[in-house]
Every structure is written in C-alpha cells, then in structure tokens.
Amino acid sequence: MRQVQRQHWRPSFDCGLGDVKWARQFAPLRSAGMNGLRLAVSWLTVLPVRGPETVDRVAAGRAIALAPLVGGLLGAGAAGLLWMLVWVGASPVLAGLLAVGALALITRGMHLDGLADTMDGLGSYGPPERARQIMKSGGAGPFGVTALVFSIGVQAVSFAALAEADRWFAVALAVTVGRIAVVLACRKGIDAAPDTSFGALVAGTQHPLTAALWFAAALTAAIFATPDHWQGPLAILIALTAATILVRHTVRRFAGLSGDTLGATIELTVSLTAATLSL
Questions:
Q1: pLDDT digits (tens, 9 = 90+) for 22-66
Q2: Of the four, 3, 103, 140, 173, which is 20 to 30 A from 226 by CA?
Q3: What are the DSSP calls for 135-174, one per residue?
Q4: Which of 24-33, 148-157, 167-176 has the lowest mean pLDDT?
Q5: How many domains does the chain have?
Q6: What confidence score (pLDDT) does residue 53 get?
Q7: Using an 8 Å Cβ cutoff, are 64 and 127 in contact?
Q8: In a domain, 131, yes or no
C-alpha cells in the first residue's frame, strides 16, 4: 500500500514582514508628526503637554503646520462651553463673553497680548526699530487697549448671535480659522523681524501647498457653517484676506514677522470670521 505522507501545517510569518517593514519606514515620520503636534499644543495652550527638548526650524515648521488641529480642539471646547452656559440659563451675551474669556485663559492670553503690542507698534508711526521697542516694552498703550476691547467685544457678541441661531459649528470654525491664518502668515517668503526668537523659528517655514490645503479645508467646512452655503466660504475669504493684508503690512512696518504679529493675526481672524458668520 502506498504510504501517504502527512504534511504538517506551519504558520508563516512572512506575510506580515511587509507590514512590519512599512511601519518601520514610516515610524520616524509618525514620531515627527506627534512631536510637532505636542509642540503646537504646548505653544498654543496652557495644557501640560511637553514638546521636544530641542526645537529647530524644522520642528517649529511642523508645529505651525499642525496649529489648525489645535485650533479645532480649542474651537470645539469654546462651542461646548457656550452651549452648556446657554443650556443652564445664561444669557447668550454673557455666555459669549465667558467663552472668549475661557479661550484667553487656555491660551495664556498670548494672542491678546500680541494684538495689543502690535497695535501699539503700528500706532507709534516711528521707524521699525522704534516700533519694535514699543512692542517689547510690556505695557499696553491706547491703541492696544482699544484693540483689545474691540476684539473681545466683537467675538463675544458674535458668539452670542451664533449661539442664539444654534450655529455651534460656526463658533468652532471661527476659532480654527484663526490658527489657519498662522499657517498662511508663516509661508515661504516671509522674513522674521530682527531680534525676535519666535519669529526666527517660524517665519517662512510653511510650503505654499500646506497653506493652500488648509485654506481649501476651511472653505469646504464653511459650507456647512451657515444655512446659506455661500455665506460661510465668503466669511472665510474675507477673514483670511484681511489677515494676509495685516501680515503684509506689519512685516513691512516692523521689518519682519514676530510672535506678536501672529497673535494679532489670530485675534483679527477669529473676530472677522465669527462676525461675518453671525450675520
């Protein structure tokens, strides 16, 4: 009789080697992305997130490119707080003011401080060196105080109007678009102002494609932010155009980009976006 040889099945691990190799190849990229996100969170919020120990222009560029994601988290938190305050019986205006205050606290007030310093610098009418000296003085002059009152007031009233219309997504979008404006402000071709450490890290780090992708994402998301689908994209276009004009003017006026300018850009963009979405 013919003897039948039994073949024992053995598990093969070769089928997963390709996946392992692929994972190993992309591990540095994934790690760099997470480091960039942690750095963005540590820069833009008070959350106890540690970034990388050493930060160069490459790491700073990744953080700026991911800043809109942090903006999305902040926007979702602001919209959630606004909804909760209205739900428990707070007036929309009070809820809007508290939401703006919460955003200021969680961002260390840096953006509002940058807005005040930038407006004081622009109002000095002196040469770039004198304007930068005024911005670094630490105090808030009449131009800065006026800008703060205007920005906080516009955002609070706009958030209140959006809350009354149940446009919670529009609130989150406005905060997010403020951080998209930072990506546009740090695009290639923008130089840093002299004697500015943060500006030297981030100015000119963003590829035009990165800025274009975030701009397109904002326009697409804005379609769903208002009942009239044209209003949202128009609001984004107006806000980001104004932000671009502000950056261009301040770069010329201060001889480069600085962290204060970025803070002013964020506040201006959030205010304009929220205001136009609330109309």
A1: 445 545 556 677 999 999 999 999 999 887 888 999 999 999 999
A2: 103
A3: HTS----HHHHHHHHHHHHHHHHHHHHHHHTT-HHHHHHH
A4: 24-33
A5: 1
A6: 80
A7: no
A8: yes
In a domain, 45, yes or no: no
Q: The tokens 């951080």 sit on which residue?
A: 179
> Region 121-126: what's the mean pLDDT?
91
Res 23: pLDDT:
47
Q: What is the pLDDT of residue 29?
A: 53
How much is the mean pLDDT over the chain?
91
Q: Quote the pLDDT of residue 11.
A: 52
CA angle 118–54–136, rounded 5-degree value: 20
Q: Which domain holds residue 74?
A: 67-277
Within-domain flag for 96 = yes
* Domain presence at residue 156: yes
The residues that bridge with 257 in the sheet, in sequence order, are 192
